[in-house]
Amino acid sequence: MRVKYVPWGEALKLCYSLAGKILDSGASFDAIVTISRGGLVPARIVSDVLGIEEMYVIRSRFWGIAGKVFDEPQVSIHEPLDVSGKDVLVVDEVVDTGLTMGKVMEIIKGMGARNVKSAVLHYKLTSSLRPDYYVEVVKEWVWIFYPWSFSETLYSLAKREGGDVLESALRIASRIGAEVSMLGAETLKLSLMEYVRRDNP
């Protein structure tokens, strides 16, 4: 599996670029709905740049490192969403198949939103949904490794590779240029041990 690591500096530039594209479009939104967990950081930055205080979180589970975890996105809402009659921007980090974004947009429309648009950092051409706003087009499929899911992604990749999880994680991090120093080797080790513990109750 091809993996592209996005370091923090690049990830932040992508987030600010996305916000800039939305501003340049002249569109105005009343609220942001972010798809958790991957869309949390981009959505927070976009909300700051656009000056939108009203932000909601929808949890979706669909993908794992090795592929799809479920046949279709599992969406859960844990707070009331006051979107009726509003223009809403749905933010995530990437569209891969487009199923998660499409499902969330339909839910928001079903709640009476006046207008619903989508925004992502990466638009993969494998997606059936073309987002309204995006920064980069990904023509050939690759797993995009964002820095805000550092331990989770490294653990999943190491587990997939087999052998000692910590050794595999460090080897993978070195191979793809992931910044272990940001977290620290000892903290990474403890974090990975937590993933092992939670994976084997």
Structure description:
The chain has 201 residues and is an alpha/beta fold. The protein is 42% helix and 25% strand. The protein is built from 7 helices and 11 strands. It has helices at residues 8-25, 40-50, 99-110, 150-161, 165-176, 180-183, 185-199; strands at residues 3-5, 31-36, 55-61, 63-64, 67-68, 74-77, 87-91, 94-95, 115-124, 133-138, 143-145. Strands 2, 3, 6, 7, 8, 9 and 10 form a 7-stranded mixed β-sheet that branches. Strands 1-11 form a two-stranded parallel ribbon. A hairpin with a 2-residue loop joins strand 4 (63-64) and strand 5 (67-68). Helix 4 (150-161) packs across helix 5 (165-176). The protein is globular. It starts with a strand and ends with a helix. 34% of the residues are buried. The model has no long low-confidence stretch (mean pLDDT 92).
